[in-house]
Hints:
alpha/beta; six-stranded parallel sheet; globular; four-stranded parallel sheet; binds D-glutamic acid; Rossmann fold; 2 domains
Amino acid sequence: MSDDRPLLFFDSGVGGLSVLAPTKLLLPNAPIVYAADNGGFPYGTKTEAEIAARVPALLGRLVERYHPRLIVIACNTASTIALGAVRAALDLPVVGTVPAIKPAALQSKTRAIGVLGTNATVRQPYVDDLSAKFASDSLVLRHGSARLVELAEAKLRGEATDPADYAAVMAGLLDQPGGDRLDTVVLACTHFPLVEEELAAASPRPLAFIHGGDGIARRIAYLTEGQEWPDARAPAIAVFTAPFDISPGLAAGLRARGLEEIRFL
Ligand code: DGL
């Protein structure tokens, strides 16, 4: 018997597409609802209290509307602040996205890694804990950037972005004391893998960029193992939390990433 309950992806904007893409490779017929909280965007400059109040309530509304089988919080900021509250509030499996510090520390040869996230993410105790647990023998430098989130959104809309902006972000990380030792950079915001090529091109030397997308996709496949899926792929739905005029560029960018239908919550 086919089960058409969707996977619900949630982010403040288009960043969660970097988690959706590897998931679709593993589960091609999974019905998808991709929710972007444009009404609350950006998250990275908000307070912990604002995010903790907003995310569980919105997810509750989305669950009532779409009856997903599983929720993916495809946002590091929301996950590092509100994952526990969401799990406590909803009786559904919830997969979070947290900075990939463990794999980065495992692969760094110089024992020095960078964590590039939003301002809210890089100051979280969650990041302190991951660093203490998995990278205690390494230097862990952090840099928060709201600009890089905007650049990723602009790129998805098909707009040109300035290489100097990416260079400035990389300098924020690499120019810190010890930054010359970094060999691995964690993209700890789901928007950032969307501009990984630009970051690599703007880096003064080759660096390994690492993010959690593939691991999260495997986790989703594991948690839904044995479940039924529709026989064919249904159009994936993008849901925005606040009404606005969707530009042709954004519609094309979403379509190119497999989100064919656009709705508002
Ligand atoms: N994509 C989000 C993250 O992973 C947050 C971007 C933002 O809204 O600031 O942290």
